[in-house]
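Hi R.,

As promised on Friday, here is the backbone we talked about, encoded as structure tokens. Could you run it through your design pipeline when you get a chance and send me back a sequence?
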């Protein structure tokens, strides 16, 4: 897990986006929203690969219910549980072991 401030800010931004189910969050939309928020706070922008890594981190390490679905030709992301948020999620076993 990266230990820089921008990493934690990115994860928070992605959490906010994925909770907003009224939007169709494609990779391009997530990348634009993330980079917009980061630049507002003086953090460097991220690449598409970093975004994919962050989504993978949400799923594999934090056990976030991120789902990938297709809407027309667009591939979109959201939480499969509409009430899910990282703020209220329990600690994973790895986090407890720290």
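Update: got your reply. Pasting your designed sequence below so it's all in one thread:
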């Amino acid at each position: 897990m990266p230990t820089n401030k921008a990493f934690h800010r990115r994860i928070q931004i992605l959490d906010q986006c994925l909770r907003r189910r009224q939007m169709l969050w494609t990779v391009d939309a997530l990348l634009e929203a993330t980079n917009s928020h980061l630049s507002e706070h003086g953090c460097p922008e991220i690449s598409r690969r970093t975004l994919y890594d962050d989504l993978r981190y949400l799923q594999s390490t934090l056990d976030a219910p991120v789902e990938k679905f297709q809407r027309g030709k667009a591939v979109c992301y959201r939480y499969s549980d509409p009430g899910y948020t990282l703020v209220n999620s329990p600690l994973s076993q790895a986090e407890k072991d720290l």
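One thing I noticed while checking it: The mean pLDDT is 89.

Thanks again,
M.
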